[in-house]
Amino acid sequence: MSAVETVTQVSQTLSALNLRGGDQEQKTEPYPYANLLPHFSPEQYPPLTPFKHEDPGFRALKHADPHAFLKNATNVVELTPNLGTEVHGVNLAALDGEGRDQLALEVARRGLMVFRGQHEFIDRGPDSYLEWGRHFGRLHIHPTSGHPKDYPQVHLVYKDAKSSYNFEREDSITSTVWHSDVSYELQPPGLTTFFLLSQPTTGGDTLFTSQISTLKKLSPSFVAFLRTLSAVHSGVEQAQFSRSGKRGGIVRREPVEHVHPLVRRHPVTGEEALYVNRQFTTRIVGLKREESETILKFLYDHVDKSADLQARVKWQPGTVVLWDNRVTAHSAIVDYGKSNERRHGARITPQAERPIPALEGLELPSL
Ligand SMILES: [Fe+2]
């Protein structure tokens, strides 16, 4: 057998085993989710306006059995004691309004839920995604990310051999950046749905942590002090990232900054959560610069190293993950770059209430 024949035979064998690199697959096979590839429309959007959020979790509290939506589950596993539940056997696409209300309440309680085998949900497409998300709140339109053409409410993350439309810091020693999504908005997201349409063979897991648990680790007197504080959350750096030509290079809505309490209270569960993050929080209002920097650095370090409070989601085809963005933080893990394989994810992001200070009636200072 000649060298050429040997190479051909090896290539055919790899093809049969579906072990070829993602880049090669992208060139030779039509991509089934091509209609959901990132599109960067040049449209400009006006500032977001306040709205009244009615949390679906309240409705579930009145239900005789708030866990009824899990009745068909074949397996329910707690990922960690305080954060995350993995569910098998429940078809999200079949949940009615009551089931969705109960889901929202359970995600608020567990912070994170991982549903396996959700191919029907994913393959129903973008109109279905919007209908799903609107049950939980007004859909956020991201100011800078790519979205499927004509569906700006669907936020996409995307990386393949040729391009990356993620918000990534290339000058850092780590891709780990704990954050709560778009916390710079006046009314940041609540129950958030995310799934992958395409994933690398290995890598690209997602980290989550409970900000209820990170707060509980702190001493009562320190928490009492944090409850009196508020901080600026800024979308400016994210917009500058796009304006520098990265991530599609589009800024459709001018960046905003808002002040939120350092400790917020979940409207349905009443639980308190730490609400600062390294990606968007810039300073604590009313403190000297050094005081603010020291406290924020301490809190970020605490979140970074509290592996005992974290959960790691390993994606499988058909996995849909939901988290309550008010009481959790998360980080992408970009460890698959050299594989050149495609990672394509979609997020449905309903906004929720303006963060409620743990001290009810706490007057938030302005910027
Ligand atoms: Fe995120």
Automatic annotation (TrEMBL):
- Residue ranges of every copy of the TauD/TfdA-like domain listed in the record: 77-349
Q: Report which superkingdom the organism of origin falls in.
A: Eukaryota
A single Gene Ontology CC term: cytoplasm
Q: What keywords does the record list, in alphabetical order? A: Dioxygenase, Iron, Metal-binding, Oxidoreductase
Stored InterPro entries: AtsK-like, TauD-like_sf, TauD/TfdA-like
Query: What would be one Pfam family of this protein?
Result: TauD
The entry lists its GO molecular-function terms as: 2-oxoglutarate-dependent dioxygenase activity; metal ion binding
Write out the similarity annotation.
Belongs to the TfdA dioxygenase family.
**PANTHER family the record matches:** ALPHA-KETOGLUTARATE-DEPENDENT SULFONATE DIOXYGENASE
Protein name, entry field: TauD/TfdA-like domain-containing protein
Q: Which organism is it from?
A: Suillus luteus UH-Slu-Lm8-n1
